[in-house]
Amino acid sequence: MSLIPEKLADGLYRFVETSPGGSLDAYLVVGSRSALVIDALQDEPGLYDAVRAVTPLPVELVITHGHPDHAGVSVKGFRAAGCPVYMHAKDFDYLPSYVSYGPERDWFTHLPDGQVFDLGGRRLAVIYCGGHTAGSLTLLDSERQMLFTGDAVGSGAIWMQLPDALPLNIFVMNLTALYNRVRGMENLTLFLGHGSQFEGGVPGLQYLHDTLVTARRLVSGVWEGEDAVMDFAGRELPYKWIAHGQMKRFWYNPQNLRYGRGSAGEEIKALFTEGCFKKGSCCLGYMLFTPETQPGCRYPLVLYLHGAGERGSDLKSTLANPGATSFADPSWQAKHPCFVLAPQCAENHWWTDEGNLAMLRYALEEMEARFPVDPNRVYVTGLSMGGMGSWTLISRWPELFAAAMPVCGAGDPENVPAAKDVPVWAFHAVNDPVVPITGRIDSPLFPSCCGSRVMVSALRNAGNPNVRLTEYSADFMERQGLHGHAAWTPAYADNEAKEWLFSFSRVNRCSVAQLAPCCWAITDCSGQVAYLLAGREKALLVSVGGGNRAVLDAVRALTNLPVSLAANPRGTVHFAEEFEQVYLAKGLEKLALDAKKVVFVQNGSVIDLGGRSLTVIEAGCTPGELCFADNAACFCGEALTGALEAPRSYSLSEYQKSLEGLAAALKGKGWEDAAFLAARKPEAHRPDCLEKAEDLAELCGLVLTEEADYLPLPVKDRSLPVFAAEAKQAKLTFTADRIR
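Above: the chain's sequence. Below: its structure in token form.
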């Protein structure tokens, strides 16, 4: 048999061997300094001589995988000529059992993912894509957009039914990584191991895409192939097959498919229902598990973010890997009934996209509005791309989450200090080739980020005491039969980690921000803000009277001075016994506090902290509310909310008088530029000014004189209708009986 080279392009040749089972292809790539042969056919011994007839340059041989139709007898000729022969070590043991020409392990040099062959003017990068065999490799010429695939993707068919094929979930993962490397190459050409058999034109990006879609949907359970049987080594081998687009025959072992899906059974997936959150023109599809609930009770919510392989429009694919299903498992629900929300990211998008982040926040708001969700026990977890989304969410909105569990993810270490109060347990395999556990990851597809080691270190350095990282060794992943990226399989089987996750609540947490020297804002889980001011002799906590023990713990961590409480109560004062003194407005004697601790104050009273003093101003939406001011700040509680809806609220005329008194008091002291610091988010982070108080007072007058329009609000469960009016910086909400 004589091999005749077919010139496909400058410096690129194909050799074809025909056999009763079909044709086999080997490729020769020639640079200016050396040449590379890709695969060695099966029965034709003259490949080395045929290559030498084309080029005299030094030659190296790459075997894309260890099947005999790609590592045939001509390997012996290259070996005898002293040519280096490369193959992935995972396929070293295949050949002796398959072929008779006597190859030894030491004939082959291990070829790892990422190695580059520089031929002079041509560079080919090795990309691992295990699936067809454990060691299947591809080679990419990025400049010319050429991808040599061996049988990683086949000739319009892919063989995943043989005993040495990897589980489909691992193949999906490897093929996803390969596809992401080339997805921007619109002119990509695939050179297949059996390319001369390909039907339907030149294979390119679409064929790779169709193969990936088929594999994903098989793993997710959306598709299922037809039963078939083949003769394999004299015995019947059952398998299934399916076709999609240019992928004409996808053969797979259904037992490998079940293993690939992880431990979640179809009965658990069936407990989820489909839905969609809509906001304007934006939609976010999801799968939702709803626990058995009792009236009057609230339940935790787990937000699970899938990986890049589950993007698209088939909502069931969000449950392909263990994650959401581990929290919906009946054994977990028996101890920890909870909601499990698994939204789906659209194809070619990322959880870290601004639009997706906004929709995820909206989804949490909708869940709390529609279901009995405990807002203090919302947990976020996700794998790979979902791990990236988890890191980003807790960095962007740490106040929303009780704890987080990112798996094989990455994030921005410069942003993560914002999550210093969020407990985090991260998981990653040290041999992860898709999302490295450490170092910076640069990609044209998503913002630059860093692996779990860097993120955990940054969070610890920010002062977070509740940070853990579980690293799975390469040996551990190998023993489990897992790809290095598949840390989610052991992570979501780790009940200790999930118990740890559920042990946290935002009730036990608050955040601290220093606003100025000796001045801190302490925000609790409900968004209520207390302010701690320290003088030389004592400190003062200005609060509306929330009952969060974590606030007191934060105060004790910030100062050793005696601390008094300046209270703006709405009917109660919490932990009064913890303070040296409690300052209250006159008329609140009914609160029945220890008379020895209470100091009743009124307009003009001064609280001296030693080196800093605050003047008391009676102002607010209800009787008994106080503001505390100096030339730098006015701690105004809820005085500027304009909310006159409660039965004890001032009337519009009383509120107007209160605001005018506040403005007059500040102007009388020359404190017109003092920043108004409110007691609730988001106002606390956007300090108001005296002008807003004046605008509110003016708006009260306009409503009373019917010079301003006001409209009813759609507020339920109120005995009286609620109205709203707006002008300049001011907004009022009030019941009809307040118009006096």
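Residues 158 and 685 are 57 Å apart (CA to CA).
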